[in-house]
Amino acid sequence: MSAVTLAAPPRARRRLPDYTPWLLISPSILLLVALIAFPLLFALKNSFYFWNLQMGPAPMGFIGLDNYKMALSNGMFLGSLWTTLQMTLVGTVVEFCLGLAIALLLLRRLPGIKLTRVLLIMPTTIAPIVVGFLFRYMYDPNGGLIPWLLTSAGIPLPAAGLLGSPSTALWAVLFADIWQWTPFFAIVLYAALLAVPGEIVEAARVDGVSPWKQLLHVKLPLIRKTALIVVMLRFMQIFNTFDLVVVLTKGGPGTASRTLGYSLYQAGMVDFNIGLSSAMTWMMVIIVNAIIGLFVFFAFKDWD
Questions:
Q1: Residues whose CB falls within 8 Å of the CB of residue 158, separated by 6 or more in sequence, listed in order
Q2: What's residue 106's pLDDT?
């Protein structure tokens, strides 16, 4: 008589508590919050103290809002803020426009376009400090590539060079930033344009809509969310520009290219005024968050 084996009934799967996902990710969240919150709280506390490392290793007394008043009264903070805003606004707009133009070119089946797409990512992968040294040589008044090109095109150059003149130093720094980060805009916008349904563009073309109006009324609205996010990210990045300024101009000549990031470095790491640099840090945090908050409110208010 053959043995008859009966299959065991399937076990009922035990349902995990609803809070399990939160429990699993809570260590990462706590670590992230601690890494963000501790420096901010450290800076907030010390912004109300007189603390200069040249005079002592510890805070030397509570002085209330004096560090904030000093930052606003000596002109360094406001001047750096104006320089930073100029650089940020111009840089974001130029990089977006150039990136969009490159993205539209990438959509066309031109010769060598595949190689171009590969090469396009290269500037973004280079560290800003390396880009700074690269452009420092390219801006050299004695044999640099960029002065030679401008001179060959008949464009007059300042006697002190592009980095040595107050009228051109900031824009020379910005040009290096544009060279490095425009491909980032191009790649992101190119990916967004690839997701635009072809039948919509084809319907617009059949209806006789010009390519320019297709871009304005069909493509740009469809990639609006992606474009706004990448604009917001780059705005914050350019607002915090530091590496290129240090390598190319050190904020000079004078204060012509001194950004807020470099002013913080100057106050904290050169003058060792921890209290003042902490106050400037918090003023910078408030300003950039206010700008981004307004941008998010108006740009994403109809976002589902």
A1: 164, 165, 167, 168
A2: 87
Q: How far apart are the first and last CA of the chain?
A: 69
- Around Cβ 188, how many Cβ atoms within 10 Å? 19
| CA 293/CA 287 separation, integer angstroms | 10
Report cis status (omega within 30 of 0) of the bond before 183. Answer: no
pLDDT, position 198: 85
Strands (E), 55-185: none
Angle between helices 224-239 and 76-107 (to 10 degrees): 140
- Cβ contact 196:133 at 8 Å: no
The pLDDT value recorded for residue 211 is 85
CA 114 to chain centre: 27
Closest to 191 in 3D by CA, of 299, 107, 303, 98: 107
DSSP class of residue 2 equals P
pTM for the model stands at 0.84
Burial class (CB in 10 A: 0-12, 13-18, 19+), 29: exposed
Q: What are phi and psi of 206, to 5 degrees?
A: -65, -35
Q: What is the pLDDT of residues 29-88, one digit of tens each?
A: 899 888 888 889 999 999 999 998 888 888 888 998 999 999 998 888 899 999 999 999
What DSSP line would sit under 92-130, residue for residue? HHHHHHHHHHHHHHHHS--TTHHHHHHHHTHHHHS-HHH
Structure letter (DSSP) for residue 267? I
Q: With contact defined as beta carbons under 8 Å apart, do 246 and 265 qualify?
A: yes
